[in-house]
Specification:
With about 190 residues, the chain is mainly α. It is built from four helices and no strands. The mean pLDDT is about 85.
Amino acid sequence: MSSDFEGYEQDFAVLTAEITSKISRVPRLPPDEKKHMVANVEKQLEEAKELLEQMDLEVREIPPQSRGMYSNRMRSYKQEMGKLEADFKRSRIAYSDEVRNELLGDDGNSSENQRAHLLDNTERLERSSRRLEAGYQIAVETEQIGQEMLENLSHDREKIQRARERLRETDANLGKSSRILTGMLRRII
């Protein structure tokens, strides 16, 4: 189990080093290369997030007595991921000014670049839509399970109330029987 975690750690270290290197190069690249680099860094950031999720799953499977050390490492990796995202955002802000100027200008490649940008955005929207759909599906399933549980609890309540009522009737009948037997014993004596 920890060997899987360590493998993910190594992959994460290599990936974050590549991302850091690329982020530092973004402001100095020509516009066409910047777009490609930004798209590449976005994909690598997604991969890094997925690696963090895998590592987090591995940590959850580690016995509680050893989990503390791995949890601390995960916190550190998540902080590193947050720093990378912030650095990338700063680098993109500088880059977005150039993109805005390029889009407002009359560059011959802008329609092709816009098309590529639209395709990237469409792909992101589709991924987000799939995630939302999956979340909605989980919510619907959870609601159905909750309704089934409420129905089961309602049936159980009815059974308990019927049993309680039978118990009261039996108690009343035992009381009557006891009084009758007591009366019979008094007559005999």
